[in-house]
Amino acid sequence: MSDEQWFWCLRHERVEPLEGCPAKDRMGPYPDQATAARALEIAHERTERLDREDEEWEWGPQK
User: Fold this and answer.
1) Taking a C-beta distance cutoff of 8 angstroms, is the pair 11, 20 a contact?
2) Is the pLDDT reported for residue 31 higher than 80?
3) Which one of 18, 35, 62, 63 is at 20 to 30 Å from 54 when CA atoms are compared?
4) Residue 25 has what DSSP assignment?
5) pLDDT confidence of 36, banded at 50, 70, 90?
6) Dihedral over alpha carbons 34, 25, 29, 18 (to 10 degrees)
7) Which residues span the domain enclosing 29?
8) If you average pLDDT over residues 18-41, what whole number do you get?
């Protein structure tokens, strides 16, 4: 397992290593560059999943 960490820079819209922009401007860490490149997609998927879970918690399973 690598100790490398990769980040998605929101300011520059690109993958950066640990020595990049300040933490306030990026998402991560991610284990590799490919995963960091998917940061926005991953965040979107997680948000959708949590929205569904919240709705099910509030209203019960929808059929």
Assistant:
1) no
2) yes
3) 35
4) G
5) very high
6) 90
7) 6-58
8) 97
CA dist., res. 26 & res. 4, Å (int):
16
Q: Is 13 within a domain?
A: yes
Diameter of the chain by CA atoms?
48
Q: Phi and psi for 56 in degrees, rounded to 5?
A: -65, -35
CA distances from 63 to 17, 58, 59, 60 (A): 44, 14, 11, 10
Residue 1 lies in a domain: no
Q: Is the residue at 63 inside a domain? A: no
| Domain count of the fold of the chain | 1
Q: Is residue 21 part of a domain?
A: yes
Contact 39, 30 (CB under 8 A): yes
